[in-house]
Design goal:
about 100 residues; alpha+beta; four-stranded antiparallel sheet; 3 helices
Length: about 100
C-alpha cells in the first residue's frame, strides 16, 4: 500500500481545482490538512453543501461556516483517489448551477 501524505493530496487536489478555474478560485495552502477554495456560482455555500450532500452524497464544509461565503473546504481523511472521486461528483452538480 502506498503512503499518502497531506502534501501529495494537497498537490493532487490543487491540480484538480486549478484545471477547473471557470468554477473555482484556488490558492495552495502553505500548511495544514484542509483545502479551502472559492467558487464562482450564484448559490450560498450552505445551500450548495446541502445539495451536494443530498444529491451527490458528497460531504464538504460550507465556507460561510468559516465566515467566507462562496467557498468550500475539504479535508484529507480518505486519500487521493477517494477525495478526487468526491470532488468529481461535486463538480457534476456545480456545473449544472452555472
Amino acid at each position: 500500500m502506498a503512503t499518502i501524505t497531506s502534501s501529495s493530496l494537497i498537490f493532487s487536489a490543487g491540480e484538480w481545482f486549478l484545471k477547473r478555474d471557470d468554477i473555482f478560485t484556488y490558492t495552495r495552502p502553505e500548511a495544514g490538512a484542509f483545502v479551502y477554495c472559492e467558487y464562482k456560482l450564484p448559490i450560498n455555500s450552505t445551500k450548495l453543501i446541502n445539495r451536494l450532500r443530498v444529491e451527490q452524497s458528497v460531504l464538504l464544509t460550507a465556507g460561510d461556516q468559516h465566515g467566507l461565503d462562496k467557498g468550500i473546504r475539504t479535508g484529507f481523511g480518505y486519500g487521493v483517489e477517494k477525495t478526487l472521486k468526491g470532488l468529481a461528483r461535486a463538480e457534476t452538480l456545480m456545473r449544472s448551477l452555472k
